[in-house]
Amino acid sequence: xxxxxxxxxxxxxxxxxxxxxxxxxxxxxxxxxxxxxxxxxxxxxxxxxxxxxxxxxxxxxxxxxxxxxxxxxxxxxxxxxxxxxxxxxxxxxxxxxxxxxxxxxxxxxxxxxxxxxxxxxxxxxxxxxxxxxxxxxxxxxxxxxxxxxxxxxxxxxxxxxxxxxxxxxxxxxxxxxxxxxxxxxxxxxxxxxxxxxxxxxxxxxxxxxxxxxxxxxxxxxxxxxxxxxx
Amino acid sequence: xxxxxxxxxxxxxxxxxxxxxxxxxxxxxxxxxxxxxxxxxxxxxxxxxxxxxxxxxxxxxxxxxxxxxxxxxxxxxxxxxxxxxxxxxxxxxxxxxxxxxxxxxxxxxxxxxxxxxxxxxxxxxxxxxxxxxxxxxxxxxxxxxxxxx
Lengths: 230, 149
Fold this sequence. Notes:
The structure holds two protein chains of two kinds. Chain A is of the alpha/beta class. Chain A is built from seven helices and ten strands.
């Protein structure tokens, strides 16, 4: 099903990369379609899920376009989704997170108050189980789940690159956006919720995660050296 | 220990050992260029070739004295560099030392590096690294085995 209305000024598309998200994707989609300023199109990029993610999307009964690809990572899936956007604005969302109902309305107004800013973010707050069960203080959400931006600017930054272990893909992308001269603005209010899985704890001993962050740092160092050599 | 003194007053800085400060301090060699990230602060570090070899040896418990002896080098600048890394929060002192002998391949890299041990410090991505949420989720969960930021 296509819900796109291309020419509408201020319209936006939502890109949701999803891999094995059968248990959370319906709730994520409901939070998108529950927006006070709804999107004109929602794209779920199924990254080769081995569970019932696609069936869960269809069962949600909401207008969604599904793009499918072989498993390549959240960055590659995000990039594929962005390539399919034809509205002036886009937003992205991780398949296990939720938006608050006025997220986009707030961010759209926020962009209008930040001269020269094309990329808006917002604070987010962790929850467990019930979205009302907030388990941590709000934090600045420099993340895929909070991004709302001009599509042309997002595309100009280039692809979202998947580091080893998928850790830090958005750090790398945001760093490149900043180095390209784009201003990133953080809305002071909570606009989204980050899902903590049952029994989960921050894992401070994950070598693959560490490799991802190190890869991101290495890329930043190499870009800096290249710029210094120019 | 006498009044007013501390253990650092009586330990020979050349013979004390070091260890990586915490599990938040992670590192990797990319074709000989060592990169270190402190996930707690979001700062990242680029080490010169000789510094990368020293980093490996410090992390394995070798003292400046033992490194200097094995490399035929003055241990004083080696100890000074270790203290620089301590100042950045990447190493902590092990006054008793580990007694570990330096790795010979690291000694060879140190000797062949031909540069001064230096560390470049970057904090431009600090708020992005520290804001990146990390999840450990139950299998068979999706991507956020490491939560994407």
